[in-house]
Amino acid sequence: MTKALDKYKHIFYNNFGDNMKRQILHVDVNNAFLSWTAVDMLKKGSKIDIREIPAIIGGDETKRSGIVLAKSMKAKECGIRTAETIYQARIKCPGVKIYSSDFKIYREYSDKLYNLLLEYTDKIERFSIDECFLDMTQYLMKDTLINKAKEISKRVKEELGFTVNIGVAHNKLLAKMASDFTKPDKIHTLYEEEIPTKMWKLPVSELFMLGKKTVPKLYNMQIRTIGELAKADKNVISKKFGKHGIQMWEYANGIDNSEVQYKQEKPKGVGNSITLPQNINEIEKLEEIVLALTEQVTYRLRRYDLLATTVNVQLRTKDFIDSSHQGKLQIATDSTKEIYAKAKELLNQMYKKTSEIRLIGVRVDNLIEKEEQQLSLFHSQKDKKQEKLDKVVDELKNKYGYNTITRAGKLNAGDILKLKDIKK
DNA sequence: TCTGGGGTCCTAGGACCC
DNA sequence: TCTGGGGTCCTAGGACCC
User: Fold this and answer.
1) Is the shortest CB-to-strand distance from A246 to strand B under 7 Å?
2) How far is the C-alpha of A120 from the C-alpha of A296, rounded, in Å?
3) In the structure, how far is the CA atom of residue A15 from the C1' atom of nucleotide B3, in angstroms?
4) CATH superfamily of A200-252
């Protein structure tokens, strides 16, 4: 659906009766990573349900990625928050149990949920690994939407073993806000007439897309609740915050004409990054890691049948100073060799001799479909040979697992990256 | 034993062209 | 011997999401 058509959508919908409004559900898994870990442990014979005790899913502190990814209700009661350090979590709640994440399992459960939801509509947008939007407009009228939500909620609990929150509304924004109200295992509606009572009293920080940089600025303008933002002068907000301002004002008023993107879209960029176990200040070692990251990135790129036009290298110093450089490629490519050559060049451009590097990332953007690749004089026999090599390596990786094949001369980098989850 | 990793979108400023 | 302005492309950085 084009943007231009989207613009007139509201006129279209407003000319129909209430029953012709879009019917949107937002399904949100409660404490996804923790719940899914719990279900998986129970399935494997565990005697404890980690949802019932103070528990968190966390990264690995020895690898310097010790942050909280998910928490149980009991852990939340201790004051533990997502994204804070495990160190802090342990201070708040000394007895807290810590479990490591496993994205392979999460993907499995996410797929199970998706397949169940497909029985209700095929217009599903997978907004993240644990959230879906469903467009039910063509399938039912308003009065049965709640019943469908109840049925979904019940079935997920009984058949899959975890709970969800479901938001019921006439657009995505309101459905998402609704699913966030009270948790867990709840269904909330947020129809237009309910906006003042259910949404406007909330602190402005609760509004989708309002983060920690914008909220203090609104506070300075005496705007503390979503209602106050909704009633503020749109022009004033738009002048101060630009495009983002218009969006936040419309969100505060419950306005959102965006469509449920149910068609599987290819990514706009592909990247991998890693926080190093120790800071590194030797360019040779950094280059090795950039090579290993490039291999990961191009492997994924080739699986999407995409070619990259720009390459981006990101660095984070020990003081958390981030920087990045990007560069265009002459010809779109998925070749490890070519993308590595550019990445290496960018790394050397930006690397200062004395910097202690904590994190490195490689990503590619401006992707195009492989079929669209223009026949080019530059696409020589030599390139084709490299292409074949990449393909053979990919096939082996698909067959025997990602880490089977390691390039000679990058043992250190490979060992570091072996510890990471490789995205499918 | 302090602070992840995957993304998307937007903006400001410089280069360059007419 | 004074110093435009519109448009596009590109890059670096920032804000936000889960």
Assistant:
1) no
2) 36
3) 51
4) 5' to 3' exonuclease, C-terminal subdomain (1.10.150.20)
**pLDDT value of position A424:** 36
Dihedrals phi, psi of A157, to nearest 5 degrees: -65, -45
Residue A49 and residue A55: Cα distance in Å, rounded?
10
The fold for domain A16-30+105-190 equals Alpha-Beta Plaits (3.30.70)
The two beta strands, A187-189 and A164-169, are: parallel
Extract the tokens encoding A411: 């043992």
Q: Tell me if residue A131 is catalytic.
A: yes
pLDDT, mean of residues A208-226: 97
| Chain center to CA of A56 | 20
Catalytic residue among A61, A108, A125, A131: A131
Q: Which of the following CATH numbers is that of domain A270-419: 3.40.190.10, 3.30.70.100, 3.30.1490.100, 3.40.1190.20? A: 3.30.1490.100
Q: What is the pTM of this model?
A: 0.89
Mean pLDDT of chain A: 89
Cα A24 from Cα A192, distance rounded (Å): 13
A85 CB-to-strand B distance under 7 Å:
yes
Measure, in angstroms, how far nucleotide C11 C1' is from residue A371 CA: 28
Distance A121 CA to B2 C1' (A): 45
